[in-house]
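Following up on my earlier thread - several people asked me to post the actual chain instead of describing it. Fair enough. Here it is, all 278 residues.
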Amino acid sequence: MWNVLKMDFYRMVHMKSFYVMLAVVMATFIFSAYVVKVAEKEIAQVTASSELNAGEAGAPVGSGVGISISNNGMDIHNADIKDWYSMMSQSRTLLLFVCIFGVLFVTSEQNSGFIKNTVTQVSGRYELILSKLVVMASFVIISSIVTIIGIMISQQIFYNGIKVGNLASLLSYVSVSMLIQLAASSLIILLTTLLKSTAFSMLLAVCISMNLFSIVIDFADSMIGTTKLADYSLINAFSRLPLNYEQSSFLKIIMTCVVYLCAYAGLSMFVFHKQDIR
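Reply from S.P.:
Thanks for posting it. Predicted structure:
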């Protein structure tokens, strides 16, 4: 198991896509923060112009002079790291990058034939799946750290200083968010193991991260009527994750993620055990 872990980590740190993904994660957030800043300035100008025109026409002018660009009520000028991280998390941008890297990492081993070497290093094929889960967990943690660094850089450049906020609240939110991403990674491992196709696996990964299958879930909900399946959907967990710590909500999401993680990992082990290695 240890040898397989070392080989998988060696492959990860020597993959160009590993560094490309991390660079894209940081660049995406910094660019997003810049776009929000520009949009705020333009909206402020439009608002000021509208109030000026209304004043010239003798119409009553509102007392509010500030403007707030918000994401679920987020005031960008007072937003801390957790607020910005939640924006990336709930938009599933981070999940998209994690899913893409998961497909590239797993299929690279299959496409290169390296799987023939690793399978001889283990006593059971399940160790290969466990090793990939550990590697994906590492990527999830690293990408979240890179995101937080990008948030701090953006705050310093565009919003006059870094606002950390409540550290305990930040760690709890980020930890649960990473657990959701890891559970989704286990699904990606299952799909790539089952399909053995980079193209089809990538297509499904994008669809999953964009939550396109929510249409099917909503249709099933309308047909059943009594059970809210969307409440138990893995990808919908991002939108159900409250910004402020709520024990019942957090525990429900953690339990959901653990069930999905174990189920997908178990299915991956079963499928891989039955497959022929070519």
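Confidence is low (pLDDT under 50) at residues 58-72. That should answer part of your original question.
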